[in-house]
Automatic annotation (TrEMBL), chain A:
Name this polypeptide is given: DUF112 domain-containing protein
Domain DUF112: 18-445
UniProtKB keywords: Membrane, Transmembrane, Transmembrane helix
InterPro entries: DUF112_TM
Entry's transmembrane regions: 20-47, 59-80, 107-134, 146-166, 172-192, 204-223, 264-286, 325-346, 361-382, 394-414, 420-450, 471-493
Organism: Actibacterium mucosum KCTC 23349
Alphabetical list of Pfam families matching this protein: TctA (PF01970)
Coiled coil spans: none
Length: 507, 332
């Protein structure tokens, strides 16, 4: 506690530090909110300047950008169905339908509060348990356990957003198939890269990079939404969403308290594992909430619980990601790698000795993340009262803006134009998916989990000498796989017993 | 094995030639019509990685030395191949520079890309060259150095696993193939695709041995989480004077290196190429860049090659890859 107070005092001890703190907070939120640029863009731009900064200010700046950036993307996800950053993608699923129902303020309010809550709780766990948790996670979770975790995620993802379980599974399988495009994770063997069926001169070069999920998300959610709204306008059935600035009530938060607890846990856990991170945390948080919720059938139609689940989980992953970074020197993602770079620039090496050698700096990081998360509540409250008024802009002005943002977002990902084409194709396909009861979210989940899962599976096979039963000989992976199997079987059984019929009657 | 010896000799001669030609050239005058707008530097890997850090450091150094300015653009994907089309369709005016690494050479040798980095591109310099090592956990009790590791592997074949960050046909896997052929190593290979996960797998005990370059794991070496037991280089580099080289333990081949350099397209006017070559040489000598390279352990072997030296290094590397690929039956 003394260390935390010391960290806080040096954080707010002079005006320069305070200015840098707020620069990081606003900068992170702004860059997080604009699709195409994200906190990584801001980080890459600012990194050279940190050389001349005080080490404590530099580390603090990046910790704050990290927390604020993960939250910032939620706003465009909720208002326009455009996730500002990958980790906000599942926020679209329920956030945007809430906007359509005139509950934008409530959705943003929930996103703000839950981001802050998830981030703060994970910062507290980080402060108390970094050393122990880090060594446990890195020892207990090898490729087989990660594969089992991903399988578990897939087991629950079929039920998201589709009109029947079968359509859900077909959507997820389609995503898994798209994930196989590109070089295979071990052999580097190109798949679907031969020939020139797209008529591009350098087709095999692009295809070897595979299909990235960001242009898919932008197409499925933003472009197809513009198409759907345009169709509604043409039919004369569109009603403009109300720009409410109402915050969720305490009672509404209490009602989803278990979702919050679960998401903190899921998010924190996903954040610790190197290479998993906030995006998967958000998706897993969402699919877990959907699995256990009483209002399961309202998911995807504007359920507050859905927004709560992913925004809690992705911010909970921020504190967790600092644990392997600080304790073992293992950055889980690009921004944490930049933070590691800052430590190194100033002559400090993250790793087991960092608490002894540069303890003060570690506590400044902890304090900065804690306060940044708390500040999100205040800033978010101001934003809720102001940003939602954008919705008053007529759709004929808004639609081109959304498309421009989406194009910029798809291009800026890798600065490759092919991603823009993929986005537009995904937009048209996405429109067809949503009018036929298939699930765009399922396809995206299949794509993300498919890439991670195949890589983990291939490594597991090499590790276990190609003995598939090895997955059941390791306790953690065995439990996860068994639970996944039970979930899949029970959902199929209940669907066969007439779940489909029940749902049809409710609808 | 014969060809390896030949390559070794050629490599040695090339190295000598390069050292001789390695002298700072006087900065020529800025060619007419050049440098009046920022140059684009394409990085075929993501922000924050080794190539990105090098490109930004070099861009900054050249800006300081020559007054040129750069816009660094990351185009990651496909292990460095997705960026190549945009480079190839850019006009050959010297305003677009591509950073690339030895992976492009392997991709060319394998037939994954059509462009020969030594012919279809003009290397303006190589700015980082490093070697690989084999690491174990310092608290490992079953073996403590290369000799005891070999004894352990002989007694327990196929029990140990080695973590490698690389795909089939990569520099990493080719080197492992070479050492396995030379010494009859019986270990299981696990191919990783993300650095953090790879390093975590050794520290967390999922694999027993790790193959990497020292600059990438420097923090773990300094922090006492990893210990080098073998260096893939002909001579022991100063910092690792107590670690044996592959030649000393009986593996007779010229080890491949990891190198990163800068290219323009074929067809760029000669005076512009010459200017950029001189700019790159001056950037390499820039104190800030030198400090950067030292921090990345890129000062342990001569890390600079001029245009001729780079072409030589690339051609020689293509030869080694082709030979190994033929043995393994991969590529075209």
């Amino acid at each position: 506690m003394d260390l935390f107070i010391q960290g806080t005092l040096s954080l707010f001890g002079n005006t320069t530090s305070i200015m840098i703190f707020f620069l990081g907070l606003f900068g992170g939120m702004l860059f997080g909110a604009i699709p195409g640029v994200n906190m990584l863009t801001l980080g890459a731009v600012l990194l050279p300047f940190t050389i001349t900064m005080d080490p404590q200010n530099a580390v603090m700046l990046f910790s704050v950008i990290y927390c604020a950036g993960v939250f910032g993307g939620a706003i465009t996800a909720i208002l326009f169905n455009i996730p500002g950053a990958p980790e906000n993608a599942p926020t679209c699923l329920d956030g945007y339908p809430m906007t359509l129902k005139g509950e934008a303020g409530k959705a943003i309010g929930a996103a703000v509060s839950c981001s802050a809550l998830g981030g703060t709780v994970s910062a507290i766990i980080m402060m108390t348990a970094t050393g122990i948790v880090a060594s446990f996670a890195v020892r207990a979770f090898g490729p087989p356990e990660i594969f089992a975790l991903i399988l578990f995620g897939l087991a629950v993802s079929a039920s998201i957003g589709a009109s029947t379980l079968w359509k859900g599974w077909l959507s997820v399988l389609a995503g898994l198939m798209i994930a196989t495009i590109g070089s295979d994770p071990v052999g580097g063997i190109p798949r679907f890269s031969q020939g020139s069926f797209l008529g591009l001169e350098y087709q095999s070069y692009y295809m070897s990079a595979g299909i990235h999920f960001i242009p898919m998300i932008l197409g499925f959610f933003a472009v197809s939404e513009v198409l759907a709204q345009a169709v509604n306008i043409a039919k004369g059935t569109r009603s403009r969403p109300q720009a409410s600035i109402e915050f969720p009530t305490i009672a509404e938060f209490l009602a989803v308290r278990w979702t919050i607890v679960r998401s903190v846990f899921v998010g924190f856990f996903a954040g610790i594992l190197p290479g998993i991170g906030a995006t998967l945390a958000a998706f897993l948080g969402y699919s877990q909430a959907h699995r256990w919720s009483k209002n399961r059938d309202n998911f995807g139609k504007g359920e507050l619980e859905g927004v709560v689940a992913c925004e809690t989980a992705n911010n909970a992953a921020t504190g967790a990601a600092m644990i392997p970074l600080l304790a073992l020197g293992l950055p889980g993602g690009a921004l944490t790698a930049m933070i590691m770079g800052i430590f190194q620039i100033h002559g400090m090496e993250p790793g087991p000795l960092i608490f002894i050698n540069s303890g003060d700096l570690v506590w400044i990081t902890f304090a900065a993340m804690f306060w940044a998360n708390l500040m999100i509540i205040f800033l978010g409250w101001v934003q809720t009262k102001t940003v939602v008024h954008i919705l008053r802009v007529p759709f004929r002005w808004l639609a081109p803006g959304i498309l421009i943002l989406a194009v910029v977002g798809a291009f800026a990902l890798r600065n490759l134009f092919i991603d823009v084409w993929i986005m537009f194709i995904a937009g048209i396909v996405g429109y067809m998916l949503r009018t036929t009861g298939y699930s765009a979210a399922g396809v995206v989940l299949g794509l993300i989990l498919g890439k991670l899962g195949e890589s983990a599976f291939a490594k597991s096979m090499q590790l276990m000498d190609y003995n598939v039963l090895g997955f059941l000989q390791r306790p953690i992976s065995a439990v996860l796989i068994v639970v996944a199997a039970v979930i899949i079987i029970s959902s199929i059984v209940s669907e066969l017993r007439g779940g489909h019929l029940q749902r049809a009657l409710i609808d | 094995m014969k060809t390896f010896k030949k390559t070794a000799l050629a490599g040695l001669l090339a190295a000598l030639a390069c050292t001789a030609s390695y002298a700072e050239k006087a900065m020529p005058d800025m060619p007419r019509g050049f440098g009046n707008r920022p140059l684009t530097m394409i990085v075929p890997y993501g922000a924050g990685g080794g190539s990105d850090q090098l490109s930004r450091a070099m861009a900054k150094a050249i800006e300081e030395e020559t007054g040129l300015s750069f816009q660094v653009v990351n185009k990651p994907g496909g292990g460095g191949t997705a960026a190549i089309p945009d480079f190839m369709i850019s006009p050959p005016d010297g305003f677009t520079i591509l950073e690339h690494i030895d992976t492009a050479v392997a991709a060319y040798a394998k037939g994954d890309i059509r462009e020969n980095p030594a012919e279809d591109w003009i290397p303006i310099c190589i700015a980082q060259i490093t070697f690989s090592q084999i690491y174990i956990r310092p608290d490992e009790t079953r073996y403590t150095d290369w000799e005891s590791l070999m004894a352990y592997i002989d007694a327990h074949p196929d029990e140990l696993s080695i973590g490698i960050l690389g795909k089939v046909g990569s520099m990493e896997l080719v080197t492992m193939q070479q050492i396995s052929d030379a010494l009859g190593l019986k270990v299981r290979q696990v191919n990783y695709d993300k650095p953090a996960e790879t390093y975590g797998s050794l520290i967390g005990g999922h694999v027993d041995i790790l193959f990497e370059q020292p600059g990438d794991v420097r923090s773990f070496l300094d922090g006492g989480q990893m210990k080098p037991i073998l260096t893939f280089l002909n001579e022991r580099p100063g910092v690792f004077a107590d670690v044996p080289t592959h030649r000393e333990v009986g593996a007779d081949f010229e080890a491949l290196t990891r190198f990163r350099g800068f290219f323009v397209k074929k067809g760029v006017a000669a005076d512009r190429v010459e200017f950029l070559e001189a700019a790159c040489a001056a950037g390499f000598e820039n104190p800030g860049f030198a400090e950067f390279n030292e921090a990345k352990y890129m000062n342990l072997v001569q890390s600079y090659r001029d245009r001729a030296g780079a072409v030589e290094l690339i051609n020689e590397t293509v030869g080694v890859y082709r030979e190994v690929y033929e043995q393994l039956g991969i590529g075209q």
